[in-house]
Amino acid sequence: MRSTLRRTRRTGLAAAGLVPALLLAGCSTAWEGAGGEPAAAPVQDVFLQPLGAHGPDPFTASTVRNTAPPAAPDRGPDDGPSPAHEVTGSTPGLYGGTRAVGSCDVERQVTLLAADRTKARAFAEAAGIPEANVADWLRGLTPVALRADTRVTSHGYREGRASAYQAVLQTGTSVLVDQYGSPRVRCACGNPLRSPAAAPGGIHQGEPWDGFDPDRVIVVRPTTTVVGSLVIVNTTDSTWIERRTGSDGDEDREPAVAPACDPDTCALTGSGTPDPDSPAPVPPAPTSPDPARPAPTTPHPDVPDPSGTGGTGTDPTAPVPPAPDPYTEPAPDPYTDPYPDPFAEPVEPPADPDGQQPPDELFPAGAVPDQPETFQG
Over the stretch 195-208, which tens digit does the pLDDT of each residue have? Predict the structure, then answer.
């Protein structure tokens, strides 16, 4: 009886000990679905990051230069939500800045990361670049400022590693943009940025700023090809600036071809991507002069080509000679000899397969009188 009770207690203790283990196993495999594929991403909250705030777990100190932040594009009081939630990175007016002055100190950012190798390694991992290429990669970015509240995936530095979270950056935030027009570094904290999650679905954490509207937050979509320059808005006089990608503003110039829209309203007007659920427009089919009988592309092989070029140089206005009449008797051959050769061997008529005589031999000819075999020379 005692042994039975001991077994029961041991079994209960073992089962109780398995509960935490199963819970831990469930946490470790919660990201895998059927067949080992990743399951749906969990709901993530979105952190609101004001213009000058460092944010949670900054990588470095601020490298923002004291420049005037750009204002958001003007909208009327009756304007509804922005029609474009995605904006291509090369859209004119998407970014702003001051002529000949970069919004971030890139060299200071390089120095701060080079001073801490652990941070540099975590930074490179979060940015998706080799650790040895951090300095060159940063020098290839373009310092600009946002002209719209933008949602991104930011990475904070915690316990020697980078931790990702969804964030909305306020209009005027200084960022470093890559050659595809996508924000990659937030200069106020040095945090690397990536494209945001498809649909976080969480709530907004933090104090909203004046003018914040969730329906007007945009997502920057990288271009499919490398962009040589960005057309940004000058924050001092609302004019256009063409800034070469990878430059610090020292090569700023006026665009050779200015955009057709006003700098104050060009950031979002007509720059959205089409709805992926809407069908793409079908181009009209080419029409021919006679839909019932389309014009042939090549001449008929039986019709001679009057140009003699094989159909490549035929004059469409040249008259086509009439085809020969199949019922017309052919002309006699002028080279046929009308006089038979007297020394030619006689040609025997073909044998009749049925053993019957041809029609010419039904009535045999009469006896032919003997001819004299004399030859007068």
Answer: 998 876 779 999 99
Q: Is 274 exposed, middle or buried (0-12, 13-18, 19+ CB in 10 A)?
A: exposed
Burial status of residue 58 (CB atoms within 10 A of its CB: 0-12, 13-18, 19 or more): middle
β 201-205/44-49 pair status: parallel
State residue 70's pLDDT score: 73
Amino acid 321: pLDDT: 53
- 14: Cβ contacts below 8 Å, ≥ 6 apart: none
Q: Angle at CA 285, nearest 5°, toward 282 and 289?
A: 160
* pLDDT (tens digit per residue) in 297-353: 444 444 444 444 343 344 445 555 555 555 555 555 555 555 555 565 665 555 555
Spatial contact of 59 and 157, defined as CB atoms under 8 Å apart:
yes
What number is the average pLDDT over the span 38-42?
Answer: 51
Q: Phi-psi region for residue 58, left (φ > 0), alpha (ψ -120 to 50) or beta?
A: beta
d(CA 182, CA 179): 7
The SS3 call for residue 111 is helix
Strand-pair category, 240-244 with 86-88: unpaired
Phi, psi of 17, deg, nearest 5: -70, -20
Q: What is the DSSP string of 6-31?
A: HHHHHHHHHHHHHHHHHHHHHHHTTT
Please state at what angle helix 106-114 crosses helix 117-127, rounded to 10 degrees: 120
Please identify which residue in the block is written with the tokens 């469409």.
316
Cβ burial, residue 66 (10 Å; 0-12/13-18/19+)? exposed
SS3 category, 153: strand
What number of other Cβ atoms are within 10 A of residue 105's Cβ? 18
In this prediction the pTM is 0.61
